[in-house]
Write a structure and sequence with these properties.
The complex is a heterodimer of chains A (121) and B (393).
Chain A: H1 4-11, E1 24-29, E2 36-44, E3 47-56, H2 59-72, H3 77-81, H4 85-91, H5 102-120
Antiparallel strand pairs in A: 1-2, 2-3
Chain B: E1 4-5, H1 16-27, H2 38-57, E2 65-68, H3 71-85, E3 92-96, H4 101-112, E4 116-120, H5 130-136, E5 141-145, H6 159-169, E6 172-176, E7 195-199, E8 210-214, H7 240-255, H8 258-276, E9 280-282, E10 294-299, H9 304-313, E11 316-317, H10 333-337, H11 342-346, E12 348-352, H12 359-378, H13 383-388
Parallel strand pairs in B: 1-11, 3-4, 3-5, 5-6, 6-7
Antiparallel strand pairs in B: 2-8, 7-8, 9-10, 10-12
Helix pairs in contact in B: 1-7, 2-7, 3-4, 8-12, 9-12
The chains are: A alpha+beta (121), B alpha/beta (393).
Amino acid sequence: MYSAETFERFKNPKFAGQISDADAVGEIGNFKCGDAMKIYLKIKNGKIEDIKFETYGCVAAIASTDMMCELVKGKTLDEAYEMSNQEIVRGLKGMPQVKVHCSILGTRSLRAAIDEYRKKS
Amino acid sequence: MMHVYLDNAATTQVDPRVAIKVIKYMNDRFGNASSLHFKGREAKKALEKARHTIALSINARENEVFFTSGGTEGNNLILKGVAFANREKGNHIITTKTEHRSVLESCRWLEGQGFKVDYLDVDAEGFVDVKQLKNSITDKTVLVSVIHGNNEIGTLNDLTEIGKICRERGVYFHSDVCQSYTKSPIDATAMNVDFLTLNAHKIHGPKGVGAVYIREGVNIGKWRHGGPHESGLRAGTENIHGIVGFAEAVKIALSSKHVSYMTRLRDKLTEGVLTRIPYAKLNGSKGEKRLCNNAHFSFKFVEGEAIGSLLDDYGICSSTGSACSEKDLEPSYVLKAIGLNHEMMNGSLRLTLSRFTTEEEIDYVLEVLPAVIKKLREISPYKEKANVLSGDV
């Protein structure tokens, strides 16, 4: 069963959406594998000033990505890059073992966005 | 908040009239049907009366009905009991890719015991490939097992047609009719079936009770050893209160006009969903060849577990075949068998009605579901596709 925190975040994600003038966008996954994710970053002075996400996925994928966004907002790119999915799971007060892999999608797309930003600049 | 139970293919609400009967046989008439005293005779009488009701409902004789603990036991008993009892004739069984797990897992276990099993394909609507069936029967074939009403997509296979083929070719025919029983006519004699699996909790009866039909004279071995209960075929003290409840549920179901009622609501729900939600598709068959209480959809750009969780939050119980909802993270094998791609399997939603479902509940679902799909599509990275694509559903 999902924690109340997970379910609440899934229902009312705080960071769902797009950033039209994003400094970097990271995208991973596709329909075929069941999950797909897009992360939008606004970066200022080497820190994540704003972050938004779009997810095609289950309760765990949506909730964990939203949790991740909250945890990395305001952090430096280096700090954000090191964000582990255990931290996300802790923030959500746990997650069914079989669903933990869903929380990895968020960190992977975040890293893809940061990689893209570093390549550009 | 309104509570709407649309997961009746999983289980149903026990009819209050059934519950009263069950309690009566738990409280006062608790005897063991094998006992010789008046309490035992009272139980035995109830047992045989229930057997009569079930036999009548499928056009069979009383001595062809055996009570079990439900669908899974029934399917195990028939598959294993027939396979082992007919080893001298052959070791070949034919079934389909869209059976209930209790048939498929029994078959897999039998394969480990040296039996050979063919799993027939189904078409895009879920109907078994009859031509393939004909070509698969060999002189080693002892049993053909084909589900009647599919528990996921509601497709009703043509038992009469399959029964005729099996009878002509001299092989036994079994059908798991747990989902269709009392919803679609079942006539053991006219359909040429040798075995049927029935259960109670899909028809507003109690859980833990069911029955099998075994045509008189067929060769089947016992699978549970002990006392001489159920003509020696199935040992174990009979679950009298459950059996009485089962028979009561059958009587109620056959006396009401619930089939046309559920069909009307099913069609209202289906049409409503397909008109109000773009990029939605109905899975399974249509009209009379579909279970009267089953609606099964795929929605593009969204995932089924997420749909079900939001519906749950609105008080609506549903089910999905998405990989995300399963412990093994595999999408439904039934949806795979009808050829859905990953996107359509993962975006699947099953809504199954009962005679207790009301028009107001369907209206409520038709209000909530489009909003739920819209909300999830808004945060889906594929929403641009949803905006530009047209007509392709």
